[in-house]
Amino acid sequence: MAITVYFVRHGQTYLNRYNRMQGWSDAPLTEKGIEDAKRVGKELAKIKFDYIFSSDLSRAVNTARLLLASDPNTEIKEPIQEPAFREIFFGFFEGANGGAVADTVGGKYGYHTFSQMAAGWGTDELKNRIAKADQYGDAEDSQDFWQRMNKGFDRLRNLPDGSVAVVVSHGAAIRSIADHYLEGVDQNVSPRNGSIMKMTLTDTDTHVDFYNQLHIPDK
């Protein structure tokens, strides 16, 4: 069994632009975000994919729709919405200034950005620390996240052998997947809006072939 998956980060939103924490909260795509989606659609026209999934959050769904409309080689009109591919839920910190959250959670350790915390602690420990700092207890920890995300991977693994799928998901979620499966990934660099991560799933392995690319490398 081998399934090829192209994970795509959604286009830029207004909360991305303003450096606000955006997990399950949602914001419209900016003009740049619309162009991000159209560009990645033209890039994915280089490959033939059989399925396209998206998180059920509107920024991912709308990115997927724009992507499909920009790909002249696909007959797929609508993404399959899969909640398992949602962004991490930041609970009390939803909508907060990203720098302020970094200072709250990581400032005393010398971390002042989300990327610095991810690089210093790893993405799973970062989730746990944010969840611990959430006074309402709503934020997802690493166990919550992977229990949900693994349901999405199970769905991908159950596709017909040889299938190629596109999944439109989110920055922190994609960075977590890369951190989990790609040794030596630079956590100081967040996946860009409209960037692509290619994975190969088999019965015995989950492999990241490339990460955070705006273009599909030539074979």
TrEMBL record:
Write out the catalytic residues in the record. H10 (tele-phosphohistidine intermediate), E87 (proton donor/acceptor)
Residues reported in the UniProt entry to bind substrate: R9, H10, G11, Q12, T13, Y14, L15, N16, R59
Task: Name the GO cellular-component terms.
Answer: cytoplasm
Q: Name one GO molecular function term.
A: phosphatase activity
One Pfam family named in its UniProt record: His_Phos_1
Which residue ranges run through the membrane?
none
What SUPFAM superfamilies does the record point to?
Answer: Phosphoglycerate mutase-like
Q: What's the protein called, per UniProt?
A: Histidine phosphatase family protein
Q: What is the lineage of its organism?
A: Bacteria, Bacillati, Bacillota, Bacilli, Lactobacillales
